[in-house]
Each structure stands twice: as structure tokens, then as C-alpha cells.
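Figure caption, in words: inputs first, then the predicted bound structure.
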Amino acid sequence: MSLDRLHVHGPLADYLDGLGETPDHIAARYEEHAGHPSAQMMTHPDLGRLLGALARQRPAGRAIEVGTFVGISAAWMLDGLGPDGRLDALELSDEYADLTEAWLGGLGLASGLTVHRGPAAETLARLDADTYDLCYIDADKPAYPLYLDEAARIVRPGGAIVADNVFSGGLVADPEATGNAAALREFTRYALSHPGVDTCVLPIGDGITLSIVRRPPLPAP
Ligand SMILES: C[S@@+](CC[C@H](N)C(=O)[O-])C[C@H]1O[C@@H](n2cnc3c(N)ncnc32)[C@H](O)[C@@H]1O
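Bound structure (S-adenosylmethionine present):
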């Protein structure tokens, strides 16, 4: 038995890129924004498929994302949630909020979508506890611990919280890392020891944490 981790590049990466379906409208959106200066912010298709699968676990469920950009992860989650699901998308930039609303609205896929403009921390603080089945965190990295605290509060027990980019392109392996890489090192430790969730780190895309919200302890007999 090997306890090594595989490096996913070359022929293995090509093989994996050929697996898995991407809905046509999402594939077209990746293409449309491939030349955007911040194109790397779009959620990796492997992670998009995971978000879609998690969203699909609760018919007519509720999901929330922190950081929307041009709507890629929102589209994956709406696809999984189905026509009766609801997604709250939190986005600081009016430009990106407009782009996402216009794109999904134009496709007739925005009936369950609410875009909340402004700093995510302010929006999250207004939301009720135990409301969501799934939360996706993909915004300003230094605020990830705060976003996880809020997510553990607003996601119901048994629900899932995914945070993206915890590898920071591999820079997190450097103990002298600074900036976002240092913030993500700290966040990953925080998520792994958070009392409200069970967390694992998964090498999908740029690395994610997957946290499941703990159920409250049963009352003593
Ligand atoms: C990595 S991108 C999100 C990508 C998106 N999830 C996707 O799949 O395409 C990060 C987004 O977070 C937004 N953002 C940054 N700081 C924020 C904040 N404090 N509150 C809300 N959104 C923020 C940025 O404007 C940007 O659109």
C-alpha cells in the first residue's frame, strides 16, 4: 500500500480533463471568459461537479456561496439544486453581480437565484441559523475563518461547507509563506480543529476543505 499522493499533471491530467460532463451553458461560460485577466478565479470543473453533486442531495434545497465572479460556481450549484432550489450568491463587485444576473437571467436559470451585493461578512451576519444545506466559500482569503464560523452557524447539521484554494497554487507548503498563502495555511488548520465541523482536505483543483456541520450532542438519558 502506498501512502504517497500522486502529482496530477501530464497524461494523467489530460485523461482526467476528458472525464465528466460539463453542462453546455457552463462549458460556454468557461470559454467566454477564458481570456479574462482573472480567468483563474473560475471554479475548476472537478470542483463544480462536486458542488453540483452536493447540491443535488437535497431536492428543493438551499445553498449559499461567498464570491460569485462571473457565475461559474453559481451555475454548477443551480444545476444540482434543480428548478425548485434556491441559491444566495454573495458578491462585493457590482460589475460581477451584474454579469452573473444577466447571464443566468438570460438563460432563464435565475428564478432561484438571489445575488446579495456588498461585503459578504455583512450579509452573512444578517442570515438565520440552520438555513442552508450547502455553503461554498471562494472569496477574500484572510476572511475565510470568519466565513467558516458563519457557515457553521447558517448551515444545518449534516450540511456541507466547501472552501476553495487551500493549496494556494502549492505555496502553502512553504512555512515562510506570506499573504494569501499564509492566510490559507492558517485557515486550513482552523478548519481542521473547528469544534462545529468535521473537516478533511481534498486535492481537487487548487485544493479544498470539505467540512460537515456536526449534529448537536444527544441529550443525556
Ligand atoms: C475567486 S472569485 C469567485 C469565483 C466564483 N466562485 C466562480 O466560480 O467563478 C472571488 C470573488 O469574491 C469576490 N469578493 C472578494 N471579496 C469579497 C467580499 N469581502 N465580499 C463578497 N465578495 C467578495 C470578488 O469580487 C470575486 O468575484
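The chain has one domain: 37-213.
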